[in-house]
Amino acid sequence: MPHIVAVHTGAGNCSHETNKLLKILCKSVCSEVSALLAGGRSATDAAVAGSLLLEDSPLTNAGLGSSITDDKKTRTEASICSTVSGFHCAGDLENVRHPIKIVEMMARDTLENTSQYIPPRIMVGQSAIDRYSQKDAVICQTNICTKRSIKMFYKAEKYFNGKLPAKRRKVDPEVAIKDPDEIKKEVSFSESSKIASNHEKEEGPDGVEDTVGVVCIDSTGDITCATSSGGSVYKYSGRLGQCCTHGAGSYTTPSLGIVTTGNGEQIINKLIAVTVAHKLPHCADPRAALDACFQHKESRMCGFVAVEKGEEGVATVHVQHTLTNMVVGFMSAQMEAPVVRVVTSEAPVFIETVRM
Predict the structure, then answer these.
(1) Residue 150 half-sphere exposure, CB side, CA atoms within 13 Å?
(2) CA 200 from centre of chain
């Protein structure tokens, strides 16, 4: 069955070794999602399945290993934008490993609704968790901190506050991961896993910090975009990112699906997804579509992956970003294996047309 899936694992300043692991993850997600689409599953089913795999990986800033807020909590968000069900999102979900499942059920409620009551398209906080955890045991609140996310939190704290708070009690990171309350305390790390050495440069947090995304086109031509995120590291509790803004984090037209990543506030303010989606089909170079979102020489901290349906069973994958690097993969029904690339700042544009 003709289909295509494109996946990105978020942008960041990742090491060569981390990018190798992200490429393996991206390849695995593309393969599994493509198999679902080949078996006749809908674009939404497949996009959700891909998002779940990304949320389960400690390498990404989605689900497990999500960024920690300034008050030492983890709050996740996700969205689905579909040519079938439209846009749904949920955010500010404390300790929820699979926010995409909440959004999936919200979309299903909309499609299956037969009453006069209009199901919500946006939900936030504990109310969303309580409502949908009763319907699926996968939705539960559990500690989703990892060694990486804890280290990145303290590195961000040091960066934003100028220095680490004095006289922290040292705790093994394994303890902080196992005990949900431990991260709320003033904790540090053992010498073997401390954040920075005395010789480390004063610089911002590194690693994958941004939203992950999946774009699927199924055999019927339906398009679904799914995004999931832990938000920016050291964000305010209660902050919502681009996942929760229609036209910012994702967007679909009858012929195109797009997901974005990067600085959420900038992406929301510029409505990157919807702007690029309407410009891209008329641009020979995707840079021109992104340029349309900004004024000349304006700072840019974002990226996107878009899949555009063409005529005669072809699709074009468009990738561009203004960040350090971004791991992207895609696979169609006509491909024997996924194509996975690290799109770097030296070559930040990637375009490829394939048969679906």
Answers:
(1) 26
(2) 29
